[in-house]
Predict the structure.
Amino acid sequence: MSDIRMVIGGLFLVYGVILVVAGAFGDAVNLWTGLAMAVFGGAFVAWSRIRRI
């Protein structure tokens, strides 16, 4: 189960970073959405690392 959380969190984190980079050069919506996704993905990965099953 923790592997699934790690994959999902990693995908959110990677896509959030991509949106932050795109938002830095373009639309502000991408920047804020990317920041939110990166924080959520980081929290998901941290939760998976801290709470092993």
Remarks:
- The mean pLDDT is 88.
- The first helix runs from residue 2 to 24.
- Helices lie at 2-24, 28-50.
